[in-house]
Design brief:
The protein has seven helices and seven strands. With about 220 residues, the protein is α/β, with parallel strands linked by helices.
């Protein structure tokens, strides 16, 4: 029973923090499905990654806050509905409520047939930006979680190398801890500019941070 009481206290504390969170209030006011929209907004405003006319691929898109932000970014008046200047493709293993103008595919990014569907939706075009808020279900075992996180980041990099324009950008969520330095190294192997960022909307208590890679390095072709 003591454990249950402690759990209730923790849940109550989290709920209290969540309800009083300024970004939660702002998201509700501005019509975003989650406070996460402001993480991408801050990264984009700082680095200028997304511009009208772009093709943007949103990996791990549910519940849709990042797609909503991109939707407004690609709208001439910054509106949530109406005219759209660009293409947004979203993918997640979970279902996602429709976002106007966003093409959503439900499936596991790790499965070749799902990846093939995404490639088909791109219709031979290269993306200007790939944004990934993908995160595994964390087990609490650091070594296991680090491996799962690294795998998703590696997949996002692999996808970007194949499907980004040479000057394009990749934004991925990572976590400080075991394996972080290796992910930074991996980014530096593939991108000319690599920036680690911790947006203000990312909670201080969280080890979450974001890695941004801008401009693909030329692919080295092995000698025959």
């Amino acid at each position: 029973m003591k454990v249950q009481t402690k759990s209730k206290k923790v849940n109550k504390a989290w709920l209290n923090d969540h309800v009083n969170d300024p970004y939660v209030k702002l998201a509700k006011k501005e019509g975003y499905r989650a406070r996460a929209a402001y993480k991408l907004k801050e990264i984009d405003e700082q680095l200028g990654l997304i511009t009208p006319g772009d093709m943007v691929v949103d990996l791990g898109s549910a519940p849709g806050a990042w797609s909503q932000y991109v939707r407004r970014r690609l709208s001439p008046q910054g509106a949530a509905v109406g005219e759209l200047n660009g293409t947004i493709l979203a993918l997640d293993i979970l279902p996602m409520e429709p976002v106007e103008g966003v093409t959503f595919l439900q499936g596991d990014f790790r499965e070749p047939e799902v990846l093939a569907q995404l490639e088909q939706a791109m219709a031979g075009r290269k993306a200007d930006a790939v944004v990934s808020d993908m995160a595994p279900n964390l087990s609490g075992i650091e070594s296991v979680d680090a491996t799962r996180i690294a795998h998703l980041v590696e997949l996002a990099i692999e996808f970007s190398v194949a499907h980004l324009k040479p000057e394009g950008a990749l934004v991925t969520k990572v976590f400080h801890g075991s394996g972080y330095s290796q992910l930074v190294k991996l980014f530096k192997e593939h991108f000319r500019v690599v920036k680690p960022l911790k947006p203000k909307a990312s909670r201080d208590k969280s080890s979450e941070t974001f890695l941004v890679g801008i401009g693909l390095k030329p692919t080295k072709i092995a000698p025959a």
